[in-house]
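Weekly structure sync, notes
Attendees: PL, DS, HV (note-taker this week)

Item 1: NAD(P)H-quinone oxidoreductase
DS walked through the input record. Source organism listed as Propioniciclava soli. Sequence as pasted into the shared doc:
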Amino acid sequence: MRAVVRTADGGPDVLRVDEVDTPSPGDGDVLVRVAAAGVNRADLLQRRGHYPPPKGVSETLGLEVSGHIEAVGAGVTTWSVGDPAVALLAGGGYAEYVVVPAGQVTSPPEGVDLLSAAGLIEVAATVVSNMDHAGLRDGETLLVHGGTGGVGSFAIQYAKARGCTVATTAGSDAKLAVCRDLGADIALDYHGDWVAELKEATDGRGVDVILDIMGAKYLGPNVASLARGGRLVVIGLQGGVKGELNLNALLTRNATVTATSLRFRPTEQKAEIVARVAESVWPLISDQTIRPAGETRFALDDVRAAHEHLESGDNVGKVILVV
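Item 1 (cont.): predicted structure, written out as C-alpha cells:
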C-alpha cells in the first residue's frame, strides 16, 4: 500500500509517499480502507520528533480517518466489510489502509460527506472528553484559544449548544469575525492584552473553564483569567513545555490546572469516548447545530503542502488529506 513515510525529524520536506506493507487486523480489530485522513497539529509535532506514538503503534502520521471497512478481525461482530466508518487512531492514518481497534470506529454523522468526516472525530473526541474532564456545566463560561482551528471552532459551537458563554482568541480581524460567526460571545486578539479585555468582558469574574493549546506561554495568563473554582485544561504545547506557576493565584481561586492527551489513553477509554461522541455530538452535526468552520483538502501526494499550510497560520478549520 501507499503511505506517508517520515525519513527524519524535521520540516515538511522529510515526508514522502512510499510503498509499505499492508497491515492485517488482529483480534478485535478492523482494517479500514482509507478515503481521507485529518491533519492535526499533533502530526506536525510528531514530524519534528517531539510527539512519538505509543509503544507498538505505527510510526506513520495520522490520528483520524474516514473510509470503508475492508476486513474484520476475530471477535468483531459490529462491523461488516464495506461499511462506511470514521476512526480515532493512535497513529497510521496517512495511508491507504489502517488497522484500528473496533471500539474506536463509528459510523460518520448522517448527511456528512465521507471526506469531510475524516476531520471530525479527533476534534470531537478531544473537545468532549476534555469538557467532561473539566466538568463543564451548562451555562458556564468557557475560554478556548485558537478559535478558528479545528479544536477551537468545534469547542465554540459545542459549548454554545450547551448554553455556555464562550470567549476565544485569534490573531486577525478576519479570524475574529469567523469566531463570532461560529457563536463566540467574546472574541479577543491575542496580540493585545487579552487577559485585561477578558476580565472587562466578564465584569471582573473571569471564566469557569479554559481549553488551552498553548501550554507554557499562556500558563500565567490563563490562571489569572480563571474565576473562583475555575478549571484550566492544557491539551497542547504550542507555546512551550515549561512555565512558571503562581500557586497563590491558583490557591486564592480554588482553581485547578490539569493536562490531558487523548492519544495515550487506554483503548477502552477511547472506545467510551468514541461512543459518547456518536451519541451526543453526531446529532448536533447532522442538524447543523455544529458546522465545520471550513476545510482545505490536499491529495496524499501533496502531504508536504498540507503541513506547510497548517503551519503557516493561514488555515481556518480542518486540513484533509484525500487518500
